[in-house]
């Protein structure tokens, strides 16, 4: 499977399709939480680690929020809305400088944790397609 990264520009929000609900059905909540946790663990060692909470407690909370969001957008319970309100993810990310490089690192880290998943490629691709476009929406800086 190819994890292609779509070219994106700050301020341009292409249409995004939610992942196939089978992503949640096949993996279940716990495996999605593990996927997100593994992704965050890679990010904590990356060049964009400064975009994430520095404390262990804050970092674990960020993992929980992210997993809640992805479970929700995959058709699961509305954990994110219940705990944090409407996602408004671009606004939530606005305090952080997210440029092309940060987006690339974030996506490449997801590719590393998605690749070994033993699920059908079309299901995995639907999740990748979502995060690929979703990540364009999060970009807010052209600075390096």
From TrEMBL:
The family database entries (Gene3D superfamilies) matched by this protein are listed as: Globins
Please give the family membership noted in the entry: Belongs to the truncated hemoglobin family. Group II subfamily.
What keywords is this UniProt entry annotated with? Answer: Heme, Iron, Metal-binding, Transport
UniProt keyword Heme, yes or no: yes
Record's protein name: Globin
- Report if keyword Heme is assigned: yes
């Amino acid at each position: 499977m190819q994890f292609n990264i779509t070219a994106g520009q700050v301020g341009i929000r292409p249409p995004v399709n939610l992942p196939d609900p089978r992503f949640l059905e096949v993996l279940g909540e716990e495996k999605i939480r593990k996927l997100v946790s593994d992704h965050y663990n890679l990010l904590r060692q990356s060049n964009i680690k400064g975009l994430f909470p520095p404390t262990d407690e804050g970092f674990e909370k960020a993992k929980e929020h992210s997993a809640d969001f992805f479970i929700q957008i995959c058709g699961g319970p509305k954990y994110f809305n219940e705990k944090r309100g409407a996602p408004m993810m671009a606004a939530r990310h606005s305090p952080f400088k997210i440029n092309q490089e940060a987006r690339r690192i974030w996506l490449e880290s997801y590719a590393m944790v998605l690749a070994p998943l033993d699920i059908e490629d079309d299901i995995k691709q639907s999740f990748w397609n979502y995060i690929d476009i979703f990540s364009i929406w999060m970009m807010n800086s052209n600075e390096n």
